[in-house]
Design brief:
It is built from eight helices and twelve strands. By secondary structure, it is of the alpha/beta class. Strand 8 and strand 9 form a beta hairpin.
Length: about 230
C-alpha cells in the first residue's frame, strides 16, 4: 500500500489532505514542520511526500536539500507563491511536482496518484524472465526491477523522477523525445511546471552520471535522446 507523508504547519490543511488521501486507500501520516518531516521520512519511509514550502524550523526547500537521494520519496511541493523562480528552485532541489495554494482536492489526489505510480516497482516486475528487466547502455546498468542504476559498477543515488527519465531514454536508444513527450510519459499528466522541468531534471541527471553524462544527448530545438558513448 502506498504511503504518503503530508507536511504542513496549518493543521486544517494537513488534516483535510490526509483525510482525502485515506479515503483513496493511502496510508497517511502528517508532520507540522520541516524538522518533523525529516524524522517522519526516517521512521515512516513514505513513497510520496506532500510538502509545504513555508514552514517553521525548516522550510520545504531546506527539507529537500537535507534529504539524501537514497531515501527521497517523490515530492509534491505546496506553495502560496506563483513565481516561476520559486518553482524552478524547488525542482532543482529535487521536487517532482508542485501546486499553488489554494488547490482543488481532486487535483492534489490526481497528482499524488501520478507520483505514486511512478515511484512504485510494478507488481509484475518480479515475474519477468532473468535479465529482461536490465538495460545496459554506455557503461550504465539499469535495473527496472529494483529501480537502481550503476555507472561503471558504482551505484548512483537518483530521485524517482531522475530514474524514470533515464530509464525511458535508455529503453529506446537513439529515439528522440520532445520535451512535451517526456513530460507526458515521465510525469504522467499535464504538468504545470512546463518543459523547463525536463531541462532541470536532465541537468541534474547528467551531473550525477559523471563520465557517462554524454549518454543523454540534446537534440536542439526538439528534446533529448540516449546514445552509446564512442570509446
Amino acid at each position: 500500500m502506498t504511503k504518503v507523508l503530508v507536511v504542513d504547519d496549518e493543521i486544517s490543511i494537513s488534516s483535510a489532505v490526509a483525510y482525502a488521501l485515506r479515503r483513496e486507500g493511502y496510508t497517511v501520516e502528517t508532520a507540522g514542520d520541516g524538522q518533523e518531516a525529516l524524522e517522519r521520512v526516517e521512521s515512516f519511509d513514505p513513497d510520496v511526500m506532500v510538502l509545504d514550502v513555508m514552514m517553521p524550523k525548516l522550510s520545504g526547500y531546506e527539507v529537500c536539500r537535507k534529504l539524501e537521494d537514497r531515501q527521497r520519496p517523490a515530492i509534491l511541493l505546496l506553495t502560496v507563491k506563483d513565481d516561476i523562480v520559486d518553482k524552478v528552485l524547488g525542482l532543482e532541489l529535487g521536487a517532482d511536482d508542485y501546486m499553488t495554494k489554494p488547490f482543488d482536492m481532486r487535483e492534489i489526489i490526481a497528482r499524488v496518484k501520478a507520483l505514486s505510480r511512478r515511484s512504485r516497482i510494478p507488481e509484475t516486475a518480479g515475474k519477468q524472465a532473468p535479465e529482461t528487466h536490465v538495460i545496459r547502455i554506455a557503461g550504465l546498468t539499469i535495473n527496472l526491477l529494483n529501480r537502481t542504476i550503476h555507472a561503471e559498477g558504482k551505484p548512483l543515488e537518483l530521485t524517482p523522477k531522475e530514474f524514470d527519465l533515464m530509464a525511458l531514454l535508455a529503453r529506446n536508444p537513439e529515439r528522440v523525445y520532445s520535451r512535451e513527450a517526456l513530460l507526458e510519459q515521465v510525469w504522467d499528466m499535464d504538468f504545470a511546471g512546463g518543459t523547463r522541468t525536463v531541462d532541470i531534471h536532465v541537468q541534474r541527471l547528467r551531473k550525477k552520471l559523471g563520465n557517462q553524462h554524454e549518454v543523454i544527448q540534446t537534440v536542439y530545438g526538439i528534446g533529448y535522446k540516449s546514445t552509446e558513448i564512442p570509446s
